From TrEMBL:
Membrane-crossing residue ranges in chain numbering: none
Keywords recorded for this protein, A-Z: Signal
Signal peptide (residue range): 1-19
PANTHER family, A to Z: BLR7088 PROTEIN, COPPER CHAPERONE PCU(A)C
Gene3D superfamilies from the UniProt entry: PCu(A)C copper chaperone
InterPro entries: LpqE-like, Lxx211020-like, PCuAC_sf
Matches recorded under Pfam families: PCuAC (PF04314)
Domain of life: Bacteria
Protein name, entry field: Copper chaperone PCu(A)C
């Protein structure tokens, strides 16, 4: 909730949608015609059903159709105690402070790469459930996404 309040104080908007969130903001002090904008949408989110210890990964794509870059700073959930940002390599993974969303590009959280680590579920997740994730960005504010829990072996597009 602190994140929401901070975002609201900063004048950012909060968007909620069932399958995808989208938000547009202008930033920078320039005139409207020259200011960089970020135009974010969240696509393809899912959580493979955790194997049993309650620790789950979260995957999604943040698309930026704007001319300015942004940064994913924090993810929280009303249904989970902790959500952290992880960077993976072939042999290890480390928690990171933030992840960049390039201008006119995407931030991909996908198997084998960057991902969310979700712990402390309030109730054991089941396939078909949705978990709200509140993604807070440096410029775009907070976007809430309802993320579906999928079978452990689910692959996007399959
Ligand atoms: Cu991880």
């Amino acid at each position: 909730m602190a994140g929401f309040r901070r975002a609201a104080l900063a004048g950012a908007a909060v968007a909620t949608a069932l399958a995808a969130g989208s938000i547009v903001v202008a930033c920078g002090a320039g005139s409207p015609s020259t200011a960089a904008t970020v135009k974010l949408s969240v696509e393809g989110s899912y959580i493979p059903l955790p194997a049993g210890d309650g620790m789950a990964a979260g995957y999604l794509t943040v698309r930026n159709d704007g001319s300015g870059g942004d940064r994913l700073l924090r993810v929280t959930s009303p249904g989970a105690g902790s959500v952290t940002l992880h960077h993976s390599t072939d042999t290890s993974m480390t928690e990171v402070e933030s992840l960049p969303v390039p201008a006119r590009g995407t931030l991909e959280l996908a198997r084998g790469g960057n991902h969310l680590m979700i712990m402390g579920w309030q109730k054991p997740p089941a396939v078909g459930d949705h978990l709200e994730l509140d993604l807070t960005f440096e410029h775009a504010g907070t976007i809430a996404v309802q993320v579906p829990v999928k079978p452990l072996t689910y692959r996007p597009g399959s």
